[in-house]
Amino acid sequence: MNTNDVVAKRICQLLKDHKISQYKLEQKSCVYHGAMNRILTGKNKGIMLATIYKLARAFDMTVSEFLNDDIFNSDDIEVE
Asked: What is d(CA 77, CA 1) in angstroms, rounded to the nearest whole number?
């Protein structure tokens, strides 16, 4: 599992928790549909901090809150 995979799982979890659609997240975060699809389908190998910042803001969170999840504590995450 790479960093993008972990972020994708976190996004999916937050979409469910906040009861919003991917489309609504794209609108609020200003992350283009194509980029969001590449993240969520695992076609990206990594993800930029600027994108994480946009996503966190769209969920009304800080980056620290976005990253404050056990999923990011796994030893199985490949960092390239």
From this structure: 5
